[in-house]
Amino acid sequence: MPRLEFLEAVLIIIQNSTIMKYILSICIAMLVTLTHVNAQTAQEAKELRHVVLFGFTETTTPAQIAEIEAAFTALPTKISEVKGYEWGTDCSPEGLQKGHTHCFFVTFNSNADRDAYLIHPAHKAFGKLIKGKVKSVTVIDYWIKDKI
Fold this sequence. Notes:
Blueprint: H1 3-16, H2 18-45, E1 48-56, H3 62-78, E2 84-89, E3 102-108, H4 111-119, H5 121-130, E4 134-143
Antiparallel strand pairs: 1-3, 1-4, 2-3
Helix pairs in contact: 1-2, 3-5
């Protein structure tokens, strides 16, 4: 029996068989579920980075800088939407810092999580703490495209 005729025969059996219709329905449901799970897993794997660079005024004391470092580090414990956090001070030999000395790196799963962080009372209080002590702030947010 040629291949096309065989496939047509199988289709006729499937169309006329209640059991085969049931099996086909289960297979379609499983395929739809797996597609949804894979799409959801891919979305959950995305990470939104929120990068904050600070340069302090000349009058900001080392104690004030330490207080700001501690306050920023405390934000992830107060704001549940933060999924990752790290920070450090500049050590680049390139001389391209443009006055920035500190980098804070915050990770979110979604724009909504980042937006909730931005308006959170703890973040607002942190903004008040740095007033007059930080002379330059650069913030950039990006979705990770490649991660090795």
